[in-house]
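Possible regression after last week's pipeline update?

I re-ran a chain I had predicted before the update to compare outputs. Posting the input and the new output here so someone can diff against the archived version. Not blocking, just want to make sure nothing changed silently.
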Amino acid sequence: MSCEALFRADSYLKSVEATVTSVGPQGIECDRTVFYPLGGGQAADSGRAILPDGEILVIGDARKARRELATPDDVLHIPAPGQDGLVALIVPGMKIRLEIDWERRYRHMRFHTATHVLCAIVKELVDGCSINAQTARLDFATDLQLDRAEIESQLATVVAAAQPLSMRWISDEELLANPQLVKSMSVSPPMGFGRVRLIEIEGVDLQPCGGTHVANSAEIGAVQVTKIEKKGARSRRINLAFAGDGATPPA
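New output (post-update):
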């Protein structure tokens, strides 16, 4: 049974009632989830699973299932160490409640959206990406001299413009007919499943992406370009951090 990855349609979902479909050494699978698995440069969600008797299982990680016929939406919820007794209580068919660490996820969403803005500013192909709750970075395949202050200023302009984000799906064939939509050399859009999700920041950026994003560029908040590094003859790394404590996640 395939999993319904609810974060694909709504990054703001914090919890869901789910049914366990399998339990094994690699983790727990359910019929639906709000947990984003590690991938596309974005860190995985953490959180908890609440069992029928109220016991709380801490979920320390989430990964894409690595089994035959698995899809990108099939997610393994990996318990934090030291909980073998609780894991032993979980069986297929059990109803559990999955809850993500929302504050951590929201930082991922803000950073991920900021990296899309970076793609629009630099306009070069990306050959590396890392997004976590503390920092984000993009590696661009270019030998251009990049100006930290100018990039930071352009990021701030897009944030202040409060541009809405939207999502739509296209077919694999449509993406193949429009290769200019792909901005990354290092992470390929998940094709072969019939459709690909496009993320658009109105008037700024349009590209296929499976990650989680905020609904408006204003939610990114104040971002600093902490460093620009030369990583090779044709590679420049832009490092980002939030200025101050950052935006408060919506309730």
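Follow-up from reviewer: compared with the archived run. The mean pLDDT is 93. Marking as no regression found.
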